[in-house]
Amino acid sequence: MKKTLLAVAALCALTSGAALAQSESPWMVRVRAVHLDSANKDSTGLGLAINNKTIPEVDISYFFSPNFAAELVLTVPQKHDVNSSVAGYLGTLKHLPPSLLAQYHFTQFQGFKPYVGAGVNYTRFSSVKLLGGAADVKRNSWGGALQVGVDIPLNKQWSLNVDVKKLYIGTDVSVGGVNAGSFKVDPVLVGVGLGYRF
């Protein structure tokens, strides 16, 4: 146990030292406008789909070193129309999809800083109003998250950001209390915004 604690303490000291050794602050905040494009795959036979839309997004990143960072991606609950290719308009629901990603930032380029990321997404479905209450969905979803993006520095603090993420979001659908199958949203999110390094 003592050896484990010493190893954890040494790792924390090394990462903290690396962050402090940077000329920049380890904290970065980005604000983006993101277009959500859903894959709309389901096994219910109803041809379910939610509408695509543009949503606001805020993320907070902490750089453990110039190359390695963790990013928490946040937004507000998003309302979607749910339609069926068989039955037409079914109603609405909301989803809140925060994600946590580990990133690698490439620092060898001049004038731009590309990065890749991978992590986990948790989605909470709420305010489900489908078929007047006759249909419902499972409220919680866990899945993977993949990311590629680039920061283009404008000055020491500000940067232009372009970011693409693939989230794996799915839920079970029930009609009249009977499981009807699964519905996968699995959206691609393309975002453009600004970043600020403290």
From TrEMBL:
Gene3D superfamilies named among the record's database cross-references: 2.40.160.20
Which range is the signal sequence, renumbered to this chain?
1-21
This protein's source sits in the domain of life called Bacteria
User: Where does this chain mainly localize?
Assistant: membrane
Q: Which Pfam families match?
A: OmpW (PF03922)
Question: Where would you find this protein in the cell?
Answer: Cell outer membrane
Q: Which InterPro entries match?
A: OMP/PagP_B-barrel, OMPW
Arranged from A to Z, the UniProt key words for this protein are: Signal
Is Iron set as a keyword in this record?
no
Q: Key word Signal present in the record?
A: yes
Q: What is this protein called?
A: Outer membrane beta-barrel protein
